[in-house]
């Protein structure tokens, strides 16, 4: 892989400027001096205005075809393309970029299918470019705290790991997620499960057995699961239970981990997304150290103490990527790991119907 000169900025295009591009990738790239945001792809008038305000020197183009056209006619030079688009578009967009010699960041969900994901990986390998997946939840402060507790031995041998990602969003997401079925990368098992399953495998290794319960409450057969549960038995012996729910009026603990010496419980979601949406600067001191709504607690069976969470660190993704592109360091997320998560999600969808509370059953 040809490396990018360490004295030069990594010339970047952000494709899509909704939550993915506008809240996550834009602020993180803009705060990192290793990158320049040269081009943004969006046609939504409000997003165009937001992109122009944040990156006044960036070229704004209305669609991906326009971006590719400028690359092909020599009017634009880039090093990196960041895809913050719906997963059904990822395969064609990523392959078009890597075929032009560009490195690619793909937001999660990586792809709707293992076949699509493998096609992207194969194309990047042929082109000799970096393909990585934005699994930003590996750098949540509460997850980093769990990692630290396990590695330090304070929990002892972990026996069960419970993880929840829950919202109260009866109005829906207001974007492609509301109508997309599993074939298009929709549903919470694919969307949030891409994070929670990835975290579990990072902690405890390969999964030997898995089962799921997938439910939809909004009615009709259109759309994916909204209230989902998965249970994984890892080869290491740990039992993982995962809840993903967009219609939860009361929220359970984010993490509940039981080991042979102690247990850990935390509540609330990592605060980085909210901070970035509110305009926080990821480069400023104190970023990521957002206090939890409720204390995290470590219990040994007879007593419990409140403990502070480690700071979250989404900027780590782009620091690691810059090192990979400039010096050949490891990529922040190996696409092969993302495909293993997707393979498990695909297997669960193949064996688990989405059940409707209106007594309908769909395979979405």
| Full CATH superfamily name of the largest domain | Dihydrodipicolinate Reductase, domain 2
Number of H/I helices? 11
Number of domains: 2
Q: What CATH architecture label of the largest domain applies?
A: 2-Layer Sandwich
| Sheet of most strands | 10 strands, mixed
Numbering strands along the chain, what is their spatial order in the largest sheet?
A: 14-13-12-11-7-10-9-8-15-16
- CA-based gyration radius: 21 Å
Write the layout of secondary structure elements.
Elements: E1 10-15, H1 19-30, E2 35-41, H2 45-54, E3 59-61, H3 64-72, E4 80-83, H4 90-98, E5 103-107, H5 114-127, E6 131-134, H6 141-152, E7 158-166, H7 188-191, H8 193-204, E8 207-216, E9 227-234, E10 239-245, E11 255-259, E12 263-266, H9 272-277, E13 296-299, E14 304-307, H10 315-327, H11 335-351, E15 354-356, E16 361-362
Helix pairs in contact: 4-5, 5-11, 8-11
List keywords for this structure.
364 residues; alpha/beta; Rossmann fold; Dihydrodipicolinate Reductase, domain 2; 10-stranded mixed β-sheet; 6-stranded parallel β-sheet; 11 helices; 32% helix; disordered C terminus
Describe it for me?
The chain is of the alpha/beta class. It folds into two domains: 10-134, NAD(P)-binding Rossmann-like Domain (Rossmann fold, 3-Layer(aba) Sandwich); 137-313 and 344-362, 2-Layer Sandwich (Dihydrodipicolinate Reductase, domain 2), CATH 3.30.360. It is 32% helix and 23% strand. The chain is built from eleven helices and 16 strands. The protein has helices at 19-30, 45-54, 64-72, 90-98, 114-127, 141-152, 188-191, 193-204, 272-277, 315-327, 335-351; strands at 10-15, 35-41, 59-61, 80-83, 103-107, 131-134, 158-166, 207-216, 227-234, 239-245, 255-259, 263-266, 296-299, 304-307, 354-356, 361-362. A ten-stranded mixed beta sheet has the order 14-13-12-11-7-10-9-8-15-16. It has a six-stranded parallel beta sheet with strand order 3-2-1-4-5-6, sandwiched between helices. Helix 5 packs antiparallel against helix 11 and helix 8 crosses helix 11 (335-351). The longest helix is centred in the C-terminal third of the chain and has 17 residues, at 335-351. The protein is globular. It starts with 9 loop residues before the first strand and ends with a strand. Residues 360-364 have low confidence and may be disordered.
């Amino acid at each position: 892989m040809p490396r990018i000169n360490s004295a030069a900025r990594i010339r970047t295009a952000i494709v899509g400027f909704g939550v993915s591009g506008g809240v996550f990738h834009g602020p993180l790239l803009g705060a990192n001096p290793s990158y320049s945001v040269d081009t943004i792809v969006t046609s939504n008038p409000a997003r165009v205005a937001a992109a122009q305000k944040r990156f006044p020197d960036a070229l704004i183009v209305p669609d991906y075809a326009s971006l590719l056209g400028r690359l092909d006619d020599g009017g634009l030079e880039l090093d990196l393309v960041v895809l913050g688009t719906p997963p059904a578009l990822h395969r064609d967009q990523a392959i078009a970029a890597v075929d032009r010699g560009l490195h690619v960041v793909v937001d999660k969900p990586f792809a709707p299918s293992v076949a699509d994901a493998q096609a992207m990986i194969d194309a990047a390998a042929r082109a000799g470019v970096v393909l990585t997946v934005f699994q930003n939840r590996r750098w949540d402060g509460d997850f980093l705290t769990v990692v630290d507790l396990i590695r330090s031995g304070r929990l002892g041998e972990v026996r069960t790991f419970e993880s929840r990602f829950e919202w109260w969003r009866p109005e829906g997401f207001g974007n492609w997620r509301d109508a997309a079925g599993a074939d298009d990368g929709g549903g919470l098992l694919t969307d949030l499960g891409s994070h929670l399953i990835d975290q579990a495998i990072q902690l405890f290794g390969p999964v030997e057995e898995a089962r799921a319960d997938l439910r939809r409450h909004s009615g009709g057969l259109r759309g994916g699961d909204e209230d989902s549960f998965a249970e994984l038995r890892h080869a290491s012996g740990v039992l993982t239970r995962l809840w993903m729910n967009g219609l939860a009026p009361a929220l359970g603990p984010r993490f509940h981990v039981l080991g042979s010496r102690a247990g850990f419980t935390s509540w609330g979601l990592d605060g980085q997304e909210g901070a970035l949406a509110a305009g926080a600067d990821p480069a400023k001191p104190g970023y990521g150290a957002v206090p939890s709504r409720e204390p995290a607690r470590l219990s040994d069976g007879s007593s419990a103490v409140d403990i502070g969470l480690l700071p979250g660190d989404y900027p780590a993704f782009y620091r690691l990527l810059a090192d990979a592109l400039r010096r050949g360091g490891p990529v922040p997320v190996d696409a092969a790991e993302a495909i293993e998560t997707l393979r498990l999600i695909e297997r669960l969808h193949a064996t688990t119907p989405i059940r409707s509370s209106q007594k309908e059953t769909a395979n979405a």
